[in-house]
Inverse folding.
């Protein structure tokens, strides 16, 4: 039996779904406000949650947050009349399965529920496989040894180890920022929860990178999966939301409304975006004469997807532009000089490119070009 809870204050929508939902072996309960929905969640375990963002007593995302604590495996689906970036970032935190825009179409609701249950089943299977892989990886040695002529052994570290260690610095920055914000908001439980969620996501990211370090003797094996670049960008921005707030950075988005599907290793492409976003934030540190602004643009043609990440920070000196992709070149006091080389390597292994346009004192724009997985009409 699939138990479904709908939290929606529009009586007509509730009645329509109660009468028209035809999913096999399913039962629908309805609540017209958030508190009633949460009360039902305390009394019964649900598989699906349909939650309107605009409820009379609370935000629909708050209902989802409460229900996730009551039913960790619940599949949340948002009902809204307007999908905003802020709600999208919060929805990513809560692992929202889908957005349904009003007016609702019964067939779309049923399809969304079906796909949500499939995603949950696939995620459960994937987690089981990851646990098995982690168990096997941790049985292997971190370092390799080779015999010397005198019979002694020498320890060697592959060159890629430094690059993986560098990737750890990004989530560590997020952990530090979120911890500082939590300390300054001790009287705000909701804010603290958000900061702790950011720390958890960053810690999970470090765990995945450490898994690669443990298996460092293996050749890099990128997963081949299809994913939407916009979803990856939203996840990447969510990781730095606190840092953007602290630095009062304006976020400007210019995205195509169409799906931007590519193929490759989603986690690796996410590291590319996170590196570039963090670089942009750091480049705008200390701006006085103008408000710092981070601009993200995603457009596509029939065969390509272009992602532009622009800041209005200090820019890159002309005599440094031809050195930025060289390993260990950096102008930062605490930098390792591995961020951009890592990015370039990942993109080349995904048959993609990166270009930079920068003016000293005005800002920098990086343009990433990736091949589209699906051909189609030209979208600008």
């Amino acid at each position: 039996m699939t138990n479904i809870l709908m939290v929606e204050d529009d009586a007509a929508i509730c009645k329509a779904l109660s009468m028209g939902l035809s999913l096999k072996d399913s039962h629908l309960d309805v609540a017209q406000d958030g508190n009633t929905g949460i009360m039902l969640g305390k009394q019964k375990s649900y598989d699906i949650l349909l939650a309107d963002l605009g409820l009379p007593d609370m935000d629909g995302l708050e209902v989802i947050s409460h229900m996730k604590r009551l039913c960790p495996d619940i599949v949340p689906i948002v009902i809204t009349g307007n999908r905003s970036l802020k709600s999208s970032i919060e929805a990513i935190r809560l692992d929202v399965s889908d957005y349904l825009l009003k007016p609702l179409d019964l067939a779309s609701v049923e399809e969304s529920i079906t796909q949500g249950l499939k995603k949950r089943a696939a995620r459960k299977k994937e987690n089981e496989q990851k646990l098995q892989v982690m168990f096997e990886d941790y049985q292997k040695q971190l370092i390799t040894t080779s015999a010397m002529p005198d019979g002694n052994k020498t320890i060697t570290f592959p060159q890629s180890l430094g690059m993986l260690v560098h990737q750890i610095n990004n989530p560590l920055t997020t952990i530090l920022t979120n911890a500082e914000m939590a300390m300054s908001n001790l009287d705000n439980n909701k804010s603290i929860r958000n900061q702790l969620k950011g720390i958890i996501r960053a810690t999970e990211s470090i765990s995945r990178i450490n898994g690669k370090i443990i298996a460092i003797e293996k050749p890099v094996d990128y997963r081949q999966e299809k994913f939407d670049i916009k979803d990856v960008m939203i996840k990447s921005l969510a990781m730095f939301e606190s840092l953007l707030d602290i630095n009062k950075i304006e976020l400007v988005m210019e995205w195509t409304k169409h799906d931007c599907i590519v193929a490759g290793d989603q986690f690796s492409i996410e590291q590319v975006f996170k590196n570039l976003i963090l670089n942009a934030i750091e480049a705008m540190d200390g701006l006085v004469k103008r408000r710092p602004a981070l601009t993200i643009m995603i457009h596509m043609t029939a065969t390509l997807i272009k992602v532009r990440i622009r800041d209005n920070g200090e820019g890159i000196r002309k005599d440094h532009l031809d050195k930025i992709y060289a390993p260990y070149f950096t102008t930062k006091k605490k930098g390792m000089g591995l961020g951009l080389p890592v990015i370039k390597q990942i993109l080349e292994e995904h048959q993609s490119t990166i270009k930079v346009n920068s003016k000293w004192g005005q800002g920098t724009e990086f343009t990433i070009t990736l091949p589209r997985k699906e051909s189609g009409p030209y979208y600008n």
